[in-house]
């Protein structure tokens, strides 16, 4: 049985003469509630769009002598297909012949009986999907406010008794750059309003860039983006312990990518991330530069800025050495101590894998008793990553008459790709520089 609200007796001052009209009935009460303009609990009795469906008078206390009428009603209202059953106390005062509504109070909203009249509508669904995640080509799409562009209900299974609603619907998401279309199954429970309990996709959403944001990209344009970019070879890390790692950059070389030196360029994949705001193109190509051929791979990423449009991000370049041809006679000069300077020749006769064989010879500009020409065999290894060769000194080919014990030394040298030069330390640790 409904718990009655005890009506207190209000002592009101009489104004005007007594009338004989009957107390307000349901119809008059409804009109008064609909027209009630004063605020209670900071809200009007009826919120925007809320209408009264039924009024039932449960109890009243009428004092015609004192000209007041206290009425207890059950009022059923409806808004957006949701029914609200409330208990309302109304106080009327009679002026002359008319009863005028002076005050009303409504039981606390926690005590209202709230029931759905039908399942959730399409227009109310988008807001319930905010902050939910769906799988889209290229990753996960976390739905933000305003991104649900369209909802189309395909199947709706509403159980008003159990206050549940299960909806299969097609959803169109729009980030402003990319649209994603897919089907989801959403399950709702009613607790004063329809609340989303779970949502799951029926397969991944399909995504595509909006026509007005589409990138016009082909292999030729990506090669132009690569033109002028650089990558570094020759970084050598040497571990000096568990505390410090020393990075030796003395042999580093910065290789510039020139469009005319690129061949076999391919776009291997195109991926869309961050709701289409990142367009990632993975590429591969060959780069031929001064007897060296590299295999390049990497990513070229465009990021969409809502103010400035598409912006290219720093380009990633990974490389591997595919081939190198350093065989042949390399000639140049060497520089020693004092007057010891002259011509140097490094003749590389064989390179197989990381093995290298050749000869090294030197001829001073001015020959003297202690400064004489010489030559000897060399063999060792070639590190194609750092372009460094380490050649152990072999037998003399031509031995100087007064050769010092430290004259025939191992050779350490670097091939500098951009300059097409080999530079290093030769006999007696003299610096030499040769070209082919």
Question: What would a concise description of this structure say?
Answer:
This protein is 5% helix and 56% strand. The chain has 436 residues and is mainly beta. The strands form 7 sheets. Strands 22-23-24-25-26-27-28-29 form an 8-stranded antiparallel β-barrel. Strands 1, 2, 3, 4 and 5 form a 5-stranded antiparallel sheet that branches. Strands 8, 9, 10, 11 and 12 form a 5-stranded antiparallel sheet that branches.
Folded structure, characterized:
The chain has 436 residues and is mainly β. It folds into four domains: 26-116, Nuclear Transport Factor 2, Chain: A (Roll), CATH 3.10.450; 122-209, Nuclear Transport Factor 2, Chain: A, CATH 3.10.450; 219-324, no CATH class; 328-435, Beta Barrel (Lipocalin). The protein has three helices and 29 strands. The strands form seven sheets. An eight-stranded antiparallel beta barrel has the order 22-23-24-25-26-27-28-29. Strands 1, 2, 3, 4 and 5 form a five-stranded antiparallel β-sheet that branches. It is rod-shaped. The N and C termini lie far apart (107 Å).
Got a strand count?
29
- Quote the distance from N terminus to C terminus: 107 Å
Spatial shape: rod-shaped
Provide the helix percentage: under 10%
The radius of gyration computed from the alpha-carbon positions, rounded to a whole number of angstroms, is 45 Å
- The CATH first-level class of the largest domain comes to Mainly Beta
Query: How many helix segments?
Result: 3
Question: Average pLDDT value?
Answer: 89
The largest pleated sheet is described as:
8 strands, antiparallel, barrel
Number of discrete domains: 4
């Amino acid at each position: 049985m409904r718990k009655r609200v005890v009506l207190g007796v209000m002592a009101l001052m009489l104004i005007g003469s007594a009338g004989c009209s009957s107390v307000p009935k349901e119809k008059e009460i409804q009109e008064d509630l609909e027209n009630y303009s004063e605020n209670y609990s900071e809200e009007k009795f009826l919120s925007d769009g809320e209408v009264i469906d039924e009024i039932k008078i449960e109890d009243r206390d009428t004092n015609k002598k004192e000209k007041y009428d206290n009425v207890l009603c059950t009022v059923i209202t409806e808004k957006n297909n949701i029914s609200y059953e409330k208990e309302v106390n109304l106080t009327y005062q009679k002026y002359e012949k008319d009863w005028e509504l002076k005050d009303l109070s409504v039981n606390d909203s926690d005590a209202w009986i709230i029931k759905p009249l039908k399942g959730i509508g399409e227009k109310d669904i988008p807001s319930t999907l905010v902050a939910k995640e769906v799988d889209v080509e290229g990753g996960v799409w976390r739905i933000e406010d305003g991104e649900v562009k369209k909802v189309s209900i395909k199947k709706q299974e509403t159980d008003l008794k159990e206050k549940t609603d299960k909806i299969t619907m097609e959803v169109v998401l729009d980030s402003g750059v990319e649209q994603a279309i897919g089907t989801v199954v959403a399950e709702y429970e009613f607790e004063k309003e329809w609340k989303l309990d779970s949502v799951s996709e029926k397969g991944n959403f399909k995504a595509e860039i909006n026509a007005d944001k589409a990138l016009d990209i082909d292999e030729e344009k990506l090669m132009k983006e690569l033109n002028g970019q650089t990558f570094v070879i020759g970084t050598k890390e040497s571990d000096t312990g568990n505390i410090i790692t020393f990075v030796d950059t003395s042999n580093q070389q910065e290789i510039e990518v020139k469009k005319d030196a690129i061949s076999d360029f391919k776009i291997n994949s195109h991926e869309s991330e961050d709701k289409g705001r990142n367009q990632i193109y993975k590429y591969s190509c060959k780069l031929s530069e001064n007897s060296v051929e590299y295999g390049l791979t990497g990513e070229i990423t465009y990021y969409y800025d809502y103010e400035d449009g598409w912006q290219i991000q720093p380009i990633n370049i990974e490389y591997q050495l595919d081939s190198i041809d350093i065989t042949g006679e390399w000639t140049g000069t060497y520089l020693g101590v004092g007057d010891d300077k002259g011509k140097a020749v490094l003749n590389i006769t064989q390179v197989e894998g990381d093995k290298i064989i050749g000869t090294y010879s030197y001829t001073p500009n001015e020959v003297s008793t202690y400064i004489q020409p010489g030559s000897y065999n060399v063999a060792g290894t070639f590190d194609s990553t750092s372009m460094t060769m380490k050649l152990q000194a072999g037998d003399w080919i031509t031995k100087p008459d007064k050769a010092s014990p430290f004259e025939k030394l191992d050779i350490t040298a670097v091939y500098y790709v951009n300059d097409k030069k080999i530079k290093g330390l030769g006999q007696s640790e003299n610096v030499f520089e040769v070209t082919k």
